[in-house]
Amino acid sequence: MQIMEIPVANPIETGKNIVDTGFMVTTAAFYLIYSAIIIFFFVKWFVKLVNEILKEYRQTMDELLQLQKKIYEIIKTLE
């Protein structure tokens, strides 16, 4: 009857693997946090840009409305 031998890993190799795995986890966490921050600020910047465009559009429409009212008043006086 043969007894199964359990291979014992070299402690230095085991430590190296743990360090490599820890570095990979740390790097992945940093990348995820960095990506989330970049996406957050990009979306915030994009929303600000769209809001400014809409604000300018609204001002232009208000000016056009005022001009239209003036023209309507002028036409009314001509009749």
**What's the assembly state of these chains?**
single chain
Mean pLDDT: 88
Distance between the termini: 119 Å
From the helix content, strand content and strand pairing, which structural class follows?
mainly alpha
What is the count of DSSP helices, taking H or I runs of 4+ residues?
1
What is the makeup of the main sheet? none
How much of the sequence is in beta strands?
Answer: under 5%
Shape: rod-shaped
H/E element sequence: H
The helix fraction, in percent, is over 70%
Computed over alpha carbons, the radius of gyration is 34 Å
Uncertain segments are none
- State the total count of DSSP E strands: 0
Structure description:
Helix content is 86%, strand content 0%. The chain has 79 residues and is an all-alpha fold. The chain is rod-shaped and about 115 Å long. The relative contact order is 0.04. The model has no long low-confidence stretch (mean pLDDT 88).
Summarize the topology.
Layout: H1 11-78
Would you summarize the structure shown here?
The protein has one helix spanning 11-78.
Main features:
79 residues, mainly alpha, 1 helix
